Amino acid sequence: MKNYLKHHEWRIIEEGFDPHYNKISESVFSIGNGRMGQRANFEEEYSGETLRGSYVAGVYYPDKTRVGWWKNGYPEYFAKVLNAPNWIGIHISIDNQKLDLAKCKTEDFRRVLDMKTGLLSRSFAATFPDGKKVRVDSRRFCSMAHGEIGAIRYAITALNFSAKAVISVYVDADVVNKDSNYDEKFWEEVYKEASEGKAIVTAQTKKTLFHVTTGMRYAIETDGKKAQPERINLEQREKFAGNVIQLNLEEGKENVIYKYAAILSSENHAKASLVANCSKVLDEAYNKGFEKLFEEHSNVWAHKWEACDITIEGDIAAQQGIRFNIFQLTQTYTGEDERLNIGPKGFTGEKYGGSTYWDTEAYCLPFYMATAEQKVARNLLVYRYKHLQKAIENGQKLGFTGGAALYPMVTMNGEECHNEWEITFEEIHRNGAIAYAIFDYIRYTGDEKYLTEYGLEVLIAISRFWAQRVNWSSHKNKYVMLGVTGPNEYENNVNNNWYTNTFATWTLEYTQHALSFVKKDDESRFSEILKRTSFDEKTEVAKWKDIIEKMYYPEDTTRGLFLQQDGFLDKELMSVSELKKEDRPLNQKWSWDRILRSCFIKQADVLQGLYFFEDKYSPETLRKNFDFYEPMTVHESSLSPCVHAILASRLGYKQKAYEMYLRTARLDLDDYNNDTEDGCHTTSMAGTWMSLVKGFGGMRVKDGKLCFSPFIPEQWKSYSFRLEFRGRVVKIKVSKDGTETRLESGDPMEIWLKDEKVMLK
Amino acid sequence: MKNYLKHHEWRIIEEGFDPHYNKISESVFSIGNGRMGQRANFEEEYSGETLRGSYVAGVYYPDKTRVGWWKNGYPEYFAKVLNAPNWIGIHISIDNQKLDLAKCKTEDFRRVLDMKTGLLSRSFAATFPDGKKVRVDSRRFCSMAHGEIGAIRYAITALNFSAKAVISVYVDADVVNKDSNYDEKFWEEVYKEASEGKAIVTAQTKKTLFHVTTGMRYAIETDGKKAQPERINLEQREKFAGNVIQLNLEEGKENVIYKYAAILSSENHAKASLVANCSKVLDEAYNKGFEKLFEEHSNVWAHKWEACDITIEGDIAAQQGIRFNIFQLTQTYTGEDERLNIGPKGFTGEKYGGSTYWDTEAYCLPFYMATAEQKVARNLLVYRYKHLQKAIENGQKLGFTGGAALYPMVTMNGEECHNEWEITFEEIHRNGAIAYAIFDYIRYTGDEKYLTEYGLEVLIAISRFWAQRVNWSSHKNKYVMLGVTGPNEYENNVNNNWYTNTFATWTLEYTQHALSFVKKDDESRFSEILKRTSFDEKTEVAKWKDIIEKMYYPEDTTRGLFLQQDGFLDKELMSVSELKKEDRPLNQKWSWDRILRSCFIKQADVLQGLYFFEDKYSPETLRKNFDFYEPMTVHESSLSPCVHAILASRLGYKQKAYEMYLRTARLDLDDYNNDTEDGCHTTSMAGTWMSLVKGFGGMRVKDGKLCFSPFIPEQWKSYSFRLEFRGRVVKIKVSKDGTETRLESGDPMEIWLKDEKVMLK
User: Fold this and answer.
1) B69 CB-contact burial (10 Å; exposed 0-12 / middle 13-18 / buried 19+)
2) Chain B partners within 8 Å of A495 (Cβ)
3) pLDDT digit string, tens, across residues B339-367
4) Does the A310-696 domain belong in CATH 3.90.226.10?
5) CATH level 3 topology of A5-307
6) Can you tell me which family this protein belongs to (chains A, B) (predicted)?
7) What is the tens place of the pLDDT at every residue in A120-161?
8) Which end of chain B is more exposed for a tag (fewer CB within 10 A), N or C?
């Protein structure tokens, strides 16, 4: 846990430069626009600890799998988020001394991320070994208005000298992935050009053959007037193109380099047009100039904030925390491209590889449903529809037949990327989350037609998987599901994980509903789906009904508990409070077997199921299970506390709910888990949003209506949030005095506030 | 399954050269002497498929662990059997054409391993591209009389020409391990010399800094007379030293190169004396000459065979099979050095790394007890005693305290080498086998004093482990053991594996016996042990008694079954006969989760326990469990069928016993599992021996007496075996007419034959 960032309602602020925190700040101050992202690396050279990272959405590399012991069915390749060509570089040297904050004396260092406008600024004074001192002020953003444009305003002022500066402005595709399994470089040069004021490099990824064209133009001003460098040399080498400029720095005069970058990928352009299109985008950016581009960019942000902002009065740290989460989520995924998804680290790091986990469906979807137009959430669902064939193939690899789909645990293109048997092959509950997301989306939006268009096919394939994955236990006279890993990954290869069994039968139920709906909604489409999927409605549905009827769920009926899995009660049941401090976090201190046989829970499992299917269970059941499992939960997954916060809120455990909320809200800002340097926990940020809106705000959708049962944490004066809901924007403000609801746009509608109907006009 | 080797009572014979079989033959025709071993690679160059392998006992390399996903507690290093410097090389070229069987036309190829004398011979005629034809006849052995000497007689005759041959005779430490994780070479040069007729290279392993000095001298004869080469050039390069000889080959005259190699390691010599000692050994070998060395070598073999031979009349394939197994075991481990052990592939390959698995205690010990002097088996036990401190440290790594030991799954020096959590951390039954070996050794030899000297300390440490590894289940009101992998590795992380639970309480019982014995036997030693181990006899033993009393064992009392683990009956219970052919072997065809949730058993588990503790259970119990588990067992471990053969014999299932015996007896000769090219299944060869002696022969030791209840497979006329037992040699011959027993040496003693007492004189 660190505490070096200043609290501010709209800004993240770092004052003073501590190299030990640099990689953390590089993550936290990352900027992006859904199409690309950039860690907060310095423009100038930096020889200290840094994780350079530029990322282009959808561009990945299937690195050869590294494994200790191969298991049949493992993927050969592991799709990795690719570190993309560097577009920010502006290297400066004066009298053969490099501007490098690891080597110069640095004063007045300040790094600021303005979340309101998506602007990263940095300023400092640096003294070279020979005593020359400069002041630098840099600003940059990834345009939310033009997804392929990045812009930098880099100002340098000689404070106590006049001298010639050598400035290299470039683009560079000779970059590496830190997590490359065999220290391989993934990019190859396709094309490069450098001319005065401009450079372009096209690089292609090995194997996947994505092309990315990265170009730049720049303009230089001295004291606000266009400046003419003394000399410009073109610089080209392998995968690199740029200009080397000689510029006279006169003491006290500000020299500004405006660098405009265009990053285009073959995902969006014909390979043959990439260079030409890049030039066009560059010209557009150059002609508009920094200020105009920034205006367009910040207008988009203003519009976005209108829809998704949450205010908290009386607690600046909490206010900053929630905005930071919303900011990251919004700049990670804009929902405009159905081929994209939300990587666990967004555009802030390369760790974990792959772009899509069950995080998307289980944690992120509600945020995007409620804060963006409907198509954003819909595109997240369509993404999985497009991967259906691959999911069926993945099922086949594991011995399933007849169109049964197992969606991958981690994926970039629909293929499985992960290779731990206990996860890859056994953490199959992900299939349930993907089915649930369809239900959840329809419940929120009312867009039931989605079933006809896409949903039903996915549901049939997932149901087929469940129907094959269970087996009949003649011992129990029930269907059982053996050898799974539930959401609590501190248990592996267990039998009858309650969560997974529950999801299996729920899917079988819901798919029957979907069949009826589509049959009524569009008979010819229905027949087409049946034909295409070779669906034998009578036999398959009969089997599903039998499974639903005779499924086994582990329970302790005396205590009114659902058991996480068979045998859970054989464990030594302890409370987290009994653990010694030096044993935490367990995953860094205990060997895996010890973790597995302990009762300690990494993340909500039975409780996660109760959260999803809250309506099926009595408050008494929720309470008993919460009281039983909560004390054993170590929350060593960032995805855990939000679920506990929501259930605690539901149960009126306000203090617990607030405590759980705090654990996620500033997870990255305070580097709670000592791992923010690898990137931010982007997907869990959606959980923070849920803790507030579904937890404190008690937001639910029932029978097509929004419901709230809010409370306010003692520590706060008020909080408010907005929701997009079926064409309306609703604003809820909760304070000590009560709850205000307001319809900000759209037709009047009825909502439930606690147990009262309220008409919003 | 291949069938290219000729059947012969004493010889393994390959006729005709098929490059596809070369790596298999390299394994099968391997020779060794307990100190070193050598695959049957060619002396001359070979550019085809080959796995070059020379191995020096005790010399290993801790390669950096490769792992997909790191778990806390994994070893950083994986000790590997090292491919050691090449001492066999004799390269030949004539008119710039290399003698290389991948490039020459080969006729009359014949490779023969004479098991009686431990001699590998190879002969062939080869035609060079230009039509020149030579005949080669090579013989070599690793001296059983002088563990550091290898000798080669390499004869070459020009058949249709006279010409100059260039012959390179060398030693070469520039070798690689095929399984090097990062393609690293593990040897560095320390010293080299080359002079006329001689060369020496000392190389050291990285990290472990073992020194191995490999030297050679040679002599050349033409038509039986010492020949003078035309010219000799010394050849030295990195890690390589040798002579390049120009020799006139005259048509029809046989030229013989006698190459004598000495392989010395710093395990047995001061590093500073290695080169000098190597020279001495070389001189000794050179002066004795090939014939004399061979005579000494084959005398040792004759002596060994006297003790351990098994004859089978009426089935040459079976006779060859059993002798091959005995031959490999005998040349792998001679028991003279308590630092050594039996690697799963002996000296025939580098796969699996490490030298010691539970195979040693569970499968190999009985063979060495019965066929070699007592110290051989004793040294196998002392090996573990010497690793006790490391086993305690290994326990500490996994959270155990107070002197609890967990012996490693795989080791070379006492440290764990393996890194799969489900094996490394959970396959803890190995600890039980190590305790059982002490009991088994004492039962066979009567050497109860071993407890006082070494055994008790090991037993205390293992018992402490079990006492901590169980936990109290308030649900079951019993002690349980959660999260283990039993001998059947097709189940991972199960609860209450019957085998492991049974071994735990057995160890706790036996340790109490050991405590009483030592207390009586040597009180001061007893106090010393108590002090050294800080053993709190009262409290610890009380805890053990409580565990013994209240341990939980999964059972199906209705059917009279011990259950392999909790939940076994929830599986879909099927018979192996219901599997499709294309599903076999499961581990190559099914994904791991499918294997895990199936009922199919890789290797004996409950049955392995019943084999070890046969006396505790009624024949009815054995039968019920055998009848239940046997049909589900796929025997995809080479260690499985022997246990089934022994139990089937016991139960009178003669046909099943014979079928199981056949599965192992010719496993490598017929390359049953398509993997002999990686090396032979050395440890499972001891299982074959057990199938015959304990299975067909029904050999047991009860109350200090040998017991037999033999039967003869229908297909055989007779079989016989010898046993060393408490200073006697007993010979048993079983034929259709009955059983003959004979005391070949030692004092008279009583044995049981079926249910009759017989006095052997």
Assistant:
1) middle
2) 567, 570
3) 999 988 999 998 876 679 999 999 999 99
4) no
5) Beta-galactosidase; Chain A, domain 5 (2.70.98)
6) Belongs to the glycosyl hydrolase 65 family.
7) 999 999 999 999 999 999 999 999 999 999 999 999 999 999
8) C
